Amino acid sequence: MSAGAAGSFGIGQPVRRVEDRRLVSGRGRYADDFAPPGMAHGYVLRAPHAHARILHIDAARARRAKGVVLVLTAAELEREGVKPIPSWSRQPPSTFPNRDGSPLPDPPNYPLARGKVRYAGEAVAFVVAETQALAQDAAERIEAAYEELPPVVAPDAALAAAAPRIWEDIPGNLCFDTEHGDAGAVERAFAAAAHRVRVPHINNRLVVHYMEPRIALAEHDATTGLTTLRCGTQSVQRQRLVLSQTLGMPPERLRVIADDVGGGFGARSYLYPEHVLAAVAARLTGRPVKWRADRSECFLTDTQGRDQRIDASLALDRDGRFLAVRLEALHNIGACITTLGHWAAAINIMRLATSVYAIPAAYLRLRAAFTNCAPVNAYRGVGRAEAIYAMERLVEAAARAIGIDSGELRRRNFVPPEAMPYKTPTGSTYDSGDFAAVMAKAQAAADWAGFAARKAAAKANGKLYGRGIGCYIESAGGQPLEYAKLRAETDGGITVLVGTHNHGQGHETSFAQLVAERLGVPFETVRVVFGDTALVDKGAGTHGSRSMRMAGSAMLGAAAALIAKGTEVASHLLEAAADDIEFAQGSFRVRGTDRTVTLAEAARAAVRGAAPGKSSAELAGDLEYRTEGLTFPNGCHICEIEVDPETGAARIARYAAVDDVGRVINPLIVHGQAHGGIAQGAGQALMERVGYDGETGQLLTGSLMDYALPRARDLPMLTVDTHEVPCRTNPIGVKGAGEGGATGAPPAVINALLDALAEAGVTHIDMPATPETIWRALGSAAGARSPSSRRRPSRSMPSD
């Protein structure tokens, strides 16, 4: 590729995101900004109980209420032929079969509860009225009677023999029980090991806090039979497919539009009940219907993240070489299976259990339990973050047990670059990476040598001070197909249509950089289009750090097809053989002459049908890119943390990160992704946690008054950099940059915290390490020291 006309806007340049000017100036167009004429408003009546049988629902009074247009209950949806939202839990069954060979359960996830409610906030009825206030008033007139049942919110309690059964046909509340690896080899390695460490821990449940609450705006055209859903989603194509299966309609009769979307993080990859309800209501009323969530509903009903109980063990020889890893995980899947919601974590834990280390043997047992909590789905770094956190906690524990520097222990066990491609004992094949070089660069950025002086200064001020490392690797790629189309416009512009979606990743900038450089056209002439199945009905959307690798590869193929078609037109216009035509800098040229045709001229000729045997047509090329391979972005994060032993308050003092994302298209965007991910990871480590009441099943952290999020003041200036080791499995050489921060930060922060607390005798702490948690851990370690003599922390989180 030649920079050419792309100039300072091509690959590798820190181009500012072009979409930001539109968004920060208030000119973004979100689903809630649309209000078609005649629009009605929807309101969802939600279950007040975490677990209860529905005795009856009487909506007669609500239907007579002022301004009411429609009331839907499960009975109406059944009459309309609405099916459960598919989970795809058995597609394909060989992905992770149950250990005993039994089929994976697939309980029906109805848009409105039938017969029973299984978590507080589950949708029970949908009221449509002239205004949202009238719809809410009418919903209060619905008479719903319940028989309360005992709830269970912890996964280990859910698997107990005496636990209440959440789904009557699923014994023991077991979602799956699968294993992976060589149990015999691991047992032999542990038996022969000189050192063994074990770290049981919790990977805490999180709420996904995107800036824009969920919206569903549906319209139905009775003439064409087309139903249009406008919503925030990470994939309009998947949304349309799942919606068509739920409504029993062909996809061609559905259009899904996602304009600007205020963040995704995995939770917008799921078709929610409200999407279905709005679509059904629009079809039945003949009017546009909008449902808008408030922030409380987001806490109650948006899919949540993480929530794993993990017991991890590592075996080492006398020289500190890793011999085997064993991991048992229990996942709280919530009340039902959302579309692919339980797969992502399990698959990625399997893929990455040995992380960046050369470990000969591994064994994993993974289970998931149904509980009376909101459903769990993907959350930034899903499965990757859980596997890496477990491994990095083990490495730090091993370093302390053996008495070796944790950096040296890692260096001793890294997969070396000369071993690439490297196949792990769990079946992943790393194509490239230089993990030792990445860590060395991170240590330099973190001023590794200056740590002792900073620790001494903190001690002089009565503070505890520690340092932690979080090395990580991720499997990126997601669904193995993506689509792109490049069209040359008659005015000289290039339109790029892609199946991915931009909701904070900067695609309108980075995709334009790639195309501008490949075609040699000015960056500002490239326009990126996405998020409408009427325009792009192929592709798989944005998830799993896949977009540049998949859509970028598709764009390169589409560019080649565009150039090939343009060459045919140019050969006619220039009266030369196609083999004599070359393309560069946005123009076709007869080789060895100054006779040229620009892309715009070729596009105008194509529209006129100027080429022989050609009717009027656009000048375009497209490609559906497919690959089964994955990429493996990796990195090293180093955190230093200061703790006030009197209050338990912890402060991140320094943070440095180096990420290998393969070829860097736009370093400014890559660094921005790292900053955001680190903030999320630090939030999980120190303050974020969803809490449910164990007796009632009610959500305890239902607002930002009791669920803490990191603020700018909670983070220092971050030092972030990249170390490029190009990927070998795609034509661009990219690996993915969307999730490394959220994966590397939790172990780096907690390892730093434990290093600080070690001199006080604290050896373990679970996330989130709130001031109260730290204060209590210090008190327990102090033994005889009276807790009443110590100041209470200023911030705390409710207990489970």
Structure report:
- The protein is an alpha+beta fold and about 800 residues long.
- Helix content is about 30%, strand content about 20%.
- Among the domains are: about 5-25 and about 480-625, Aldehyde oxidase/xanthine dehydrogenase, molybdopterin binding domain (Aldehyde Oxidoreductase, domain 4); about 430-475 and about 630-800, Aldehyde oxidase/xanthine dehydrogenase, molybdopterin binding domain (Aldehyde Oxidoreductase, domain 4).
- The strands form 7 sheets. Strands 3-5-1-12-9-10-11 form a 7-stranded mixed sheet, sandwiched between helices. Strands 7-15-14-13-8 form a 5-stranded mixed sheet, sandwiched between helices.
- Helix 18 (about 665-685) packs across helix 19 (about 740-755).
- The model is unreliable at about 1-5 and about 795-800 (pLDDT under 50).
Name some characteristics of this structure.
single chain, 800 residues, alpha+beta, Aldehyde Oxidoreductase, domain 4, five-stranded mixed β-sheet, 29% helix, 22% strand, disordered C terminus
Q: Would you summarize the structure shown here?
A:
The chain has 800 residues and is of the alpha+beta class. The chain has a 7-stranded mixed sheet, sandwiched between helices. Strands 7-15-14-13-8 form a 5-stranded mixed sheet, with helices on both faces. It is globular, with a radius of gyration of 28 Å.
Topology:
Elements: H1 18-24, E1 40-46, E2 52-58, H2 60-63, E3 68-72, H3 74-79, E4 116-117, E5 123-129, H4 132-139, E6 143-148, H5 155-158, E7 174-181, H6 183-192, E8 195-203, E9 215-221, E10 226-231, H7 236-247, E11 254-257, H8 273-285, E12 289-292, H9 295-301, E13 308-316, E14 322-334, H10 343-352, E15 361-370, H11 384-402, H12 406-413, E16 422-423, E17 429-430, H13 435-445, H14 451-460, E18 464-473, E19 481-488, E20 494-498, H15 507-519, E21 526-529, H16 547-573, E22 581-584, E23 587-590, E24 596-598, H17 599-608, E25 619-626, E26 634-643, E27 650-660, H18 667-686, E28 718-722, H19 740-757, H20 771-782
Parallel strand pairs: 1-12, 10-11, 14-15, 20-21, 27-28
Antiparallel strand pairs: 1-5, 2-4, 2-6, 3-5, 7-15, 8-13, 9-10, 9-12, 13-14, 16-17, 18-26, 19-20, 19-25, 22-23, 23-24, 26-27
Helix pairs in contact: 10-11, 11-19, 15-16, 16-17, 18-19
